[in-house]
Amino acid sequence: MSKAYAMALVKLTDKEKFMENYGSKVADVFALYGGHFLARATESTHKEGRPFDLHVIAEFPSWDKANEALGSAEYLAIKPHRIGNIDMDYGSFVVVEGV
Description:
- By secondary structure, this protein is α+β, with helices and mostly antiparallel strands.
- It has a single domain (4-46, 53-97), classed as Alpha-Beta Plaits.
- It has 4 helices and 4 strands.
- It has helices at residues 15-23, 26-31, 63-70, 73-83; strands spanning 4-10, 36-41, 54-60, 92-97.
- A 4-stranded antiparallel beta sheet has the order 2-3-1-4.
- α1 (15-23) runs antiparallel to α4.
- The model has no long low-confidence stretch (mean pLDDT 96).
């Protein structure tokens, strides 16, 4: 079974509210499903495309666990604080299966 990765490129609209209500809680939610962050940084070396405020890679033990985490009651409770404090049209949030 391959691992899975949740990846996000984020343009923040309200950094304080995002961090307080989502950023400070999401690691604990992911941990419930075996997930942990590999990268979670504001700094990057920008090479191509749009610049972002936050760059995230989270690893999960499987595709099923990643999708279970993102559909869980715990995650759905904090998700509005992510959506409400970022530019949804500017960024990207995906889950991919590892090789």
